[in-house]
Structures are given as structure tokens and as C-alpha cells.
Amino acid sequence: MFGSHSLRNRMLPAPPPQGQFTLANGEILNSQTNLSGYISLLIHAEPYPLSGSGSQDVQPNDVLILENICEQAARVLFGAVEWARKIPFFPDLEVNDQVALLHLTWCDLFMLNWAQCSMPAQVLPFLAATSLHTSPGSSDQVAVFTENVQMLQDQMEKFKALHVDPAEYSCLKAIILFAPDAPGLSDTVNVESWQEKSQCALEQYVRRQYSNQPMRFGKLLLRLTSLRAVPSSVVEQLFFVHLVGKTPIKILIRDILLSGGSGN
């Protein structure tokens, strides 16, 4: 299955060396290359503001209403696909390559968007309890599921503690999306180059904006590695079973992508 535990725990690319750096497609970057314009394009590709939107879109009295949470989850997933469609390079790929990348990375993109929304902490435990009530399992299954939900909750809290800003979130999502090891991907060279460029952009941005936090860039990359430890099946069960039933997420992702942003 796409998004499997083994695939989603792949290694991140090594941080680029100082000085001149040649991307996989031959493009040369150096310490003077200004990547701020690229970051601006990533930010402006967002179909709607995400930062703090969870507390704005879901009112306190409605926060634990399942229908409202599922609507927000659908909006977050749709926003991730729409963002990918509008960022540099991704639209230049063949449709099959676009689908291959989103099939592998949708869960990580969704979780990054969810973290950026800053939904109230009680939402995940509520979803977990609801899921276990509607789809009870054996004691072992419940234990594993509960452990994974706690892992997801911990990752959300760690992103919040880092105070990740919109530019950093956009770069992290681009690093995730441009995965050269996606099964079925044909244009691996360019995708690898765009991942490297996204990582260079993040490193440059962090060094300039957070010069007093020399370890911040490394911490952000470690957060991505930890995020991938959360199985996509858990995210599906928490957020989307109530919406789409047994419809595979990969079909939903393809439909959103090919709908051309109609939102249907």
C-alpha cells in the first residue's frame, strides 16, 4: 500500500555543504543564491490561510462535534493538494508523476497542515475515542492504535513548541512532496533537484531569520523524520473513515488533483 511504514520512514537528504552546491539536474546554487522568491511562491500557493485557522474555524462550543472536525479535515486535505498544484515545478510534471508523489506524501502533508492549523489539543483524543467506539478491535489493536494516536499528538505539540512559521511550513511541505523515491515516479532527477532546492531554501531562511537559533534547521528536519513514524492508516481511521467510508484515500487524492480545484 502506498504510504506504507517502510516507505514513509525513508531517509531525508543530507544537508547541503557550504559554498557551491550542484543540484541533481545540474543547477548550481551557492551561498549568494537568493531563494526568498521561491519561498514567497510556496507561501502564496496556499489556497487559504492555515496558521491558527483551527481555533478560528471551529468555535469552542463546536470543537468536539464530529461533523465539524471532519469538515475541517477535508478542508485541510483539499488545501494540501491545491497547494501542490500551484507551487513551482509540480505542475510541470506529468499527471502520473503528480499522482505518484501525492500518493506517497499526502499523509505527511496533511499532518503538517493540521499542525499549522493549531487545532485544540482535545480534538485528537476525541477522534480516537469516537473511532474506537464505532470500530472496536482486539485489546492488542486498541493498544497499538492508542499508542500511534499519542505519537501523533506528541508531534503536533512539538511543532507548536517550535513556533514554526508559515515560510518554514511551506519549505517543509516542499521537501516532503518532492520525494524522488516515490513508487512509479519517472522524473526522479528533477524531483530530487527540487527537493534539494527546497531544503536549501529552508536552511537559508532559517539562518537569516533565526540566527540566534543555530540548531533550528536540524530540529525542523528531525521533526519531519519523527512525523513519518505515524502510520497513514491511523490518520485515515481518525479523520477520513467518517467522511469517505472504505473509499481508499489514494482515489480521493487523485480525484481532487484531477478536479482542477473545483472543491467538489
UniProtKB/TrEMBL annotation:
Domain of life the protein comes from: Eukaryota
Keyword Nucleus: yes
Family annotation (CDD domains): NR_LBD_COUP-TF
Keywords linked to the UniProt accession: Nucleus, Receptor, Transcription, Transcription regulation
Domain NR LBD: 34-260
The protein's name: NR LBD domain-containing protein
Native source species: Canis lupus dingo (dingo)
Taxonomic lineage: Eukaryota, Metazoa, Chordata, Craniata, Vertebrata
